[in-house]
Amino acid sequence: MCDALEVQGKDRKTGAAGILRFSSLYRSACADLALADSYQLPPSTVSYLHRLVARSHNRLYRSSRLDLQSWSETLFRDAPRQIFADPCVHVATLLFFGLFCLSSIIALNESWFPDYAGSLMGDETINSLQSMYEQPIQGSLDHYLKMAGFYIMHNTAIGLQCFAYGILVLPCLISLSYNAIILGASFGYMSRADVSGGDHFLHFVTAHGPFELTAICLSGAAGLRLGWGLFDTKGLIRSESLRLSARNAVPVMVAAAILFFLAAITEGFLSPSPLPYFVKVTWAVMSTAMIAFYFVILGAPQDLASDDREDRVDPLAVDPLAVDPLAVDPLSLNPLTDDGSP
User: Fold this and answer.
1) Domain housing 205
2) What is the pLDDT of residues 223-273, one digit of tens each?
3) What's the domain count of the chain?
4) Which CA distances in Å does 174 have to 47, 94, 169, 170, 224?
């Protein structure tokens, strides 16, 4: 079992049952060593038990090492599957992107609601938005660095706001809906052919749009997961349910933070750059594909793989009571019969 623990590791692959059995055998070996010393058994037996206890102690209480395979499994298997299967992520995604697309379509088609964007954002905001993008965006390296830092702080504030509102559920849904409607109206209005500065606006927002919109959505989903634990406790006390919900919300919030960071870097360097629009569109398509691959392709349940893993038997995951450590000859490791003979 020491060899098995050394190969498999102590945490993920061994499992709770394996650790429980190993600790039970370790305590039994310590008791056998104490009895061997007390009864002055042959030195070879005492020496063997000393080595066995020392080796078991090192395996059971050794410090955790950096396991790259475990990290990769967590990042590219467990996290996307947990996010994909989270109902709060489904609700936030449908709500945010559904309202965003609907608001964009309404604002784009002026004949449907002629003053839709103006009634939502106000004429002053509309005029400020147009004047901001009348001229091509130009900036130096110092400007890019300053704006990247600003966008990191700005995006972090948006994410924390959506996450904090989630503790009460309803404010989070309202915040997600408001951001989706306002952003959608801005995109739709500035995409009209008769609006001045529309081309420059698209040049700026296209590259970082997928990262930022997805990050806002995931921030709201993480807040919903946290808040929903206060209402749906599943029989637990509220503090314990909140703690469990917070732990389940960690992968969603970490993913949102990474996407906010990527959005800020893109918004600070690529979006305001004079590069051709084709480059920015290509980056937007690539970023959308990466997001879809991580959250959908890697996150989708794989029934065949899960069934195959369920069929495997962990050699350490055996009932600790099924093996009596005292019924083993410490020298030959062969089971002893009822009369004590090997």
Assistant:
1) 76-303
2) 999 888 888 888 888 888 888 888 889 999 999 999 999 988 898 888 888
3) 2
4) 70, 14, 9, 6, 12
